[in-house]
Amino acid sequence: MKRFFTILCTLLLAATGALAATPAEARNPYCGIRWGSLEKTAEGTANGSLLGVRAGRHSCYDRLVIDVAGDVSGYTVAYYGSEEMGIFDGSSSAGPPLRGGELLAIRVELATTDAAGNPTYDPRWHYTDELVDVSKFRTFRQVAGGSGYQGYVIMGIGVRARLPFRVLTLDGPGDGSRLVIDVAHRW
Question: Which of these, 136, 81, 123, 137, lies nearest to 105 by C-alpha position?
């Protein structure tokens, strides 16, 4: 009987260990990506101005780069539900819906006034449906510009699904900086 009980306990422990083992996907995430999909923020004050927006395709993710004259200081990047796909202009007005299943909204603290406090306006970044061509991208469906409003600029990325993303701030070129948003192709 004692031998039977020892064998039974051994089998139960082995079965419990097998059930607790993590699946291969959790141990070896796609391309080693462990970014998650929750909001990413950094506190800061507006001291740079928007120079340009560009996008690139990589083997594991799509990338959006926001070039800034000066420093990228504060930002918020977060997913919003498809019912809010057009809300990215900083006021109570909703812009047109973006293509894709999810909206990744980007709010960057940037100077939207000149030294005298007068509002600046650059039509390249205001209510632009196609800031960059992402028609051949795997994850991005559309990149649209919202507006400059009270010290920040808002943009949106229409993505095919809610996927992991990361946000980086990089120095250069020159005295400028870049806000980089990478969105994985899959979990």
Answer: 81
CA-based nearest residue to 88, from 122, 119, 128: 128
CA pair distance 74, 79, nearest whole angstrom: 17
- Above 50 in pLDDT, residue 5? no
Q: Where are the domains of the chain?
A: 37-184
The tokens of 78 are what?
């977060």
Give pTM, 2 decimals: 0.78
Q: Are 106 and 156 in contact (CB under 8 A)?
A: yes
| DSSP 8-state class, residue 37 | S
Helices (H), 104-186: none
Residue 7 has pLDDT above 60, yes or no: no
37-184: what fold?
Answer: Immunoglobulin-like (2.60.40)
Torsion-angle region of 32 (φ positive above 0: left; ψ -120 to 50: alpha; else: beta): left
Residue 8: pLDDT band with limits 50, 70, 90: very low
